[in-house]
Amino acid sequence: MNERAFIESLKALATDPAARGLADDCAAIEVGGETLVLTHDTMVEGVHTLPGQDSADVAWKLVATNLSDLAAKGAQPIGVLLAHMLGSDDGRFLAGLGEALARFDVPLLGGDTTSGGPPRAWGLTAIGRATHRPVPSRAGARPGDAVWVTGPLGAAMAGFEALRDGTGADSTAFRRPLPCLGEGEALAPLVSAMMDISDGLLLDASRMAEASGVTFALSSADVPIAVPEGRRAEALRWGEDYELLFTLPAGVEPNVSAWRIGDVRERGEAPVLLDGNAPEGPLGYEH
Asked: Looking at residue 119, which CATH number applies to its domain?
């Protein structure tokens, strides 16, 4: 099975309302008058990391990518659980983990360790507390809404290439991304739908449009990018920038720095249109 087929099969098992039909970034569970928001991501050596990459950066990114899912729900992090596969560089992993936990002010609550590999794999479960209810989802976009993004795309792609090629150029955006936690919390009361951009703008916009039963009409020229203009098409598909993609009802302006990149229309033949046409080729990264 490919990733999409496997997730579709899992939906028959994920029947609890908290799972949100496996069509969202996180689960949302009502507990004692609060809503807990939970997510889990895995990173695999050679898939999400480069060979020989500093394990301190691996640990940082593992924390940051999970917290990015919480950001897309407007949730405040309250703890993480770690799954770590032991290796020769555990000291560096611990250093990066400590830096990330301190930077994002989130406690380590427990987890599991194991041996194995290569390749090695790491997992993290992040737990958050919703700051607004209902918790934003991918499914709320409506025709007439505007489509927005919180920041430029393509910096992670450029950082990956700099690290891979050893050019000495800045690779921070790929190695140590920053989840938009403050932006997500501020936007949560306003948005009709929201998610983070991890697998590429076009693919993630397609997922949000599918969940909402609409079509997103995007203008490529309006999307801010952090790479030369000639690489715009790549920047829209590469992913790992962890900016927030969100929709706002007509007349509602964002309360954070953001760029309007399109609008929401009645569902047409394609979930995403780019400059009036269905994009050609892969929309982003799928396993």
From this structure: 3.30.1330.10
